[in-house]
């Protein structure tokens, strides 16, 4: 017998996206740590970390830049994953309650 809450939650899509992005980020960052000379891997890691990975443009070509770049990419993936998890786990606004004043 159907109930009032039998429809899938719209949050499930955000949770799926957050989980997929988190897993992809861990795989990309670990792959870059293991095989740092992969051009395709680096491009995927940079694209996945956008817009924060644009900070790589500030790096110069000096010794040790690869480890700094890897750290910056890991942080950019973590920030994006945190934002996705925030969207997935935040409480939905209840019907009948007004929107916060800063949203109106």
What's the gist of this structure?
The protein has helices at 11-34, 39-48, 65-89. The chain is mainly α.
Low-confidence runs: none
Helix content: 55-70%
| Estimated radius of gyration | 19 Å
The main β sheet shows up as:
none
Provide the structure class: mainly alpha
Mean pLDDT: 76
| Order of helix and strand elements from N to C terminus | HHH
Query: What is the 3D form?
Result: elongated
Helix tally equals 3
What is the percentage of strand-forming residues?
under 5%
Number of strands: 0
Determine the N-to-C terminus distance.
39 Å
What does this structure look like?
The structure is a single chain. By secondary structure, this protein is an all-alpha fold. It has helices at 11-34, 39-48, 65-89.
Keywords:
104 residues; mainly alpha
List the helices and strands and how they pair.
Layout: H1 11-34, H2 39-48, H3 65-89
Helix pairs in contact: 1-2, 1-3
């Amino acid at each position: 017998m159907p109930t009032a809450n039998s429809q899938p939650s719209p949050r499930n899509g955000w949770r799926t996206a957050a989980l997929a992005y988190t897993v992809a980020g861990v795989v990309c960052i670990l792959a870059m740590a293991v095989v740092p000379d992969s051009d395709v891997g680096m491009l995927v890691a940079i694209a996945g970390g956008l817009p924060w990975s644009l900070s790589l443009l500030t790096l110069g070509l000096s010794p040790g830049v690869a480890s700094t770049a890897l750290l910056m990419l890991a942080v950019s993936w973590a920030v994006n994953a945190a934002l996705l998890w925030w969207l997935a786990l935040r409480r939905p606004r209840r019907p009948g309650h007004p929107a916060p004043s800063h949203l109106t």
